[in-house]
Amino acid sequence: MNRMSTQSLEQSAAAGAEPLKSPQISTVVRDELQDVPIIDVHTHLFMPSLGKLGLWGIDELLTYHYLEAEIFRFSGIQPEEYWRLTKREQADLIWRTLFLENAPISEATRGVAYVMRELGFEISESGLREAREFFAQQDLGSHIGRVFAMAGISEAVMTNDPLDPEEGSLWEGGATPDSRFRAVLRLDRILNKWDQHWQALLAKGYKVEQGLGGATLAEVRRFLADWCARMKPVYMACSLPDTFQFPEESVRGTLLQGGVIPSCREHDLPLSLMIGVRYQVNPKIRLAGDAVGKADLRSLEHLCAQFPENRFLTSVLSRENQHELCVYARKFANLMPFGCWWFLNNPSIVEEVTRERLEMLGASFIPQHSDARVLEQVIYKWRNTRRTLGPILTNTFQLLAEDGAIVTRVQIRDTIQRLFRTNFERFAAPAQVSVQKSAS
Ligand code: FIX
Ligand code: ZN
Q1: Does residue 74 have its Cβ closer than 6 Å to ligand 1?
Q2: Please, are residues 113 and 104 in contact by the beta-carbon 8 Å criterion?
Q3: Which of 1, 25, 59, 241 to pair with 220, CA 20 to 30 A apart?
């Protein structure tokens, strides 16, 4: 290799273009992962103007449905009895049972232990009391800034339901936008529960019919247009059961084909499909009662092939569907796999899924989202993602170096920026997502 002059070596080193030696790669990957301002592409967080919908603080962290699923395994309490407790009493029970009487070794309990430590509290009786006192003194606006900085995220993409009576009226009343949050038009009530919600559209002046006759599809598209104008969403979204099929002679099939999909094209929005939920297999434990099922991804194949002008941002819930999702993403550039969703967001599975995506898709996918329902969860969910992905990306670039290519900091930085920012910015509604220059 021809020797570069000292000055150009220094310049290239400064610019990050200097070839890295294998042992340097892990440090560069760790640093660039730490520095990338991540866009969290799917959460259940809410901007402050949506009020009480936004959950934060230690009692909400402790009563997260992931932990509620665990409390019923460790404590003898029956769901009916648990639901009669106050939120504080529920949190006290979970804290005592899952954190004090037992080691918090599950992904969800360890995550809360990490947040407590990062905020300066012990895993002890007094720690919970002190944490409650701390949160009681916080101003939400500045607290969000602190938490986003700790998590290393620049924006959180929300899940917004226009047919939720409380949320819908806040938006109709003119909820103030917050540049740290992006809106999403969530369509589960329309696509999955039309028979329960079509009258809500009718009541709002949209001439829809339960049987989808008359002007229903045009009126659904008008409803979506009105909410796109109001929310300025970065995508439309829907979770779908493991039994989802497309095409399908069904209400959902018709609403997708004649309503949602053309509307996404009209507004230049991706449609996020989150496929594989077996809803409420145990309704007694409420939000914790959903499970997972392997889906028939030929539905996705048909959608991507039939609607090449549409973009499909897709997460599948079953581990058994992950490899075929990668194969489909190789067939269809309008398919963007994202995240290790819900029951997959555990290091053992994140590692397997991320490796096969890198091997089959290079950096053309979105590795993770937090699915956070409580603000401070992003602190542990993104720390865990960085910790799990660091060695994987290091190995990826070490293999590249071993196989003869020059690996540089710039290459690593650009790859990480693409994975955690620009893939989403380019795939989502470009007009809505400010394409911020990546941190230099
Ligand atoms: O449909 C969804 O957005 C799911 O992520 C949620 O319904 C689920 O309860 C969840 O929060 C998983 O992490
Ligand atoms: Zn979610």
Answers
A1: no
A2: yes
A3: 241
